[in-house]
Amino acid sequence: RPCAKDHTSASPRRVVEQLRRQPGRTAQVSVQVELVVSEIKLVSGLLPLKAYHSSIVLRQSGVESKEYWFDEKLGLVKGSGLVSHKDRVTQRIQMGHTDVTGSELENKMYPHFLMGSYDLLRKNCNSFTDAALVVLLGSRLDARFRQLDRLGALFPELISKLSGGRYCPNPEADDFDLECFCRENLLQLPSF
Predict the structure, then answer these.
(1) Residues 35, 77 contacting (CB under 8 angstroms)
(2) pTM of this prediction?
(3) What average pLDDT does the segment 92-108 reach?
(4) For a surface tag, which of 1, 114, 158, 186 has the fewest beta carbons within 10 Å of its beta carbon?
(5) Start-end of H helices in the chain
(6) DSSP calls for 33-77
(7) CA-CA distance, 63 to 31, in Å (whole number)?
């Protein structure tokens, strides 16, 4: 699957803003984007590992706030409150404002984050959040929240061993390439 040509001369945010001003796109709303992360502590033998669950909350004046996340069983999910973080302590980070609405985000993300396509290492909640931040703001998820994901992607046998053999790559995630998705969506934002 080819990715868009990489234009390194313009910053991602500048490219996003230029493309959002395309003719035919009339929605001009102000939606606050909040990143929400919670730490999942994993311990295997003597090696303590940190993993994170992440989601996005969108707040628009006059509209109830909604949380968006990628669920292992359900795919892309939208809910009220911070349902996906369960009882874990959360860190809430204000990321900025966008003119992309929740419905537009869902329409853009849904085909890529279907039920049954979750993979613990290659296509998880952090992959969704990273991709959503690109669509919403032209920015990426801080790498510290994806350290275990990246380590696992490089050494899947390590994760399989740490999970007691429970991790098995999901073939439904084989066609997903996060870096390609992000490059294409930084350079070719759709007219909504």
Answers:
(1) no
(2) 0.81
(3) 95
(4) 1
(5) 12-20, 102-109, 125-137, 147-154, 156-162, 178-187
(6) EEEEEEEEEEEETTEEEEEEEEEEEEEETTEEEEEEEEETTTEEE
(7) 10
